[in-house]
Design a protein that fits this description.
The chain is mainly beta. Helix content is about 0%, strand content about 25%. The chain contains no helices and 18 strands. Strands 4-6-8-10 form a four-stranded parallel beta sheet, with no helix packed on it. A three-stranded antiparallel beta sheet has the order 1-2-3, with no helix packed on it. A three-stranded parallel beta sheet has the order 9-11-13, with no helix packed on it. It is globular, with a radius of gyration of 18 Å. The termini are far apart.
């Protein structure tokens, strides 16, 4: 028989769902895209353990998402993948994360807490831009982070302080632009820069 799922016709055969023009079954999507993301969207979203990547704009504008649990082996999140997910309050990325696209979590107006794994080497442009309620950013483990790009924390106006890992070597212009409550940043090597 056939059913409609997210506005698409799905064929059902021997317990497995297939979509026309898809080369893999719904039960084995290693990359979540805008086309198949709707099957994962819930208030408390659980990304299956077999998923290895989330494509650009996959969950953009999905305000009903309140929490996300990522699989341990997830390694890539595309640009604007969770942009404008206004219900999302906490973010903890898995330890195998390697790449995060620009603006991946921008405009998440309810986000308050972020935990980043040691495996991330760069914080891209606009990553947390306009997350006006973001108060806490933590870095865990033996960090590989070396670069924080332009506008990564643009207008995170609730952020008051930040302790950067020793691995950081480059902070681009305007990385913390318009973070009006940010009083000081603890720099690699034990230094500290107060707000001027």
């Amino acid at each position: 028989f056939t059913i409609l799922h997210c506005g698409k016709m799905i064929l059902h055969h021997k317990g497995v769902f297939f979509m026309p023009n898809y080369t893999t079954s719904f039960s084995n999507d290693r990359i979540i895209t805008r086309k198949n993301a709707c099957r994962y969207i819930h208030t408390n979203t659980l990304i299956p353990s077999y998923v290895r990547g989330i494509a650009s704009e996959a969950f953009q504008n999905k305000s009903m998402i309140k929490t996300i649990q990522f699989p341990a082996e997830l390694s890539h999140i595309g640009a604007r993948a969770f942009r404008n997910c206004n219900g999302l309050t906490d973010l903890r990325l898995p330890n195998q994360m390697r790449e995060i696209g620009s603006g991946a979590f921008a405009d998440c107006s309810s986000m308050r807490r972020v935990t980043l794994p040691a495996s991330v080497s760069e914080l891209p442009k606009d990553l947390f831009s306009e997350n006006t309620k973001l108060k806490s950013v933590e870095f865990h483990g033996q960090d590989q982070l070396h670069t924080i790009h332009k506008n990564a924390f643009f207008r995170c106006q609730s952020l008051t302080s930040l302790i950067l890992p020793e691995s950081v070597t480059t902070i681009d212009d305007r990385a913390f632009y318009r973070c009006k409550s940010l009083d000081h940043i603890s720099l690699p090597g034990g230094g500290k820069r107060d707000r001027q």
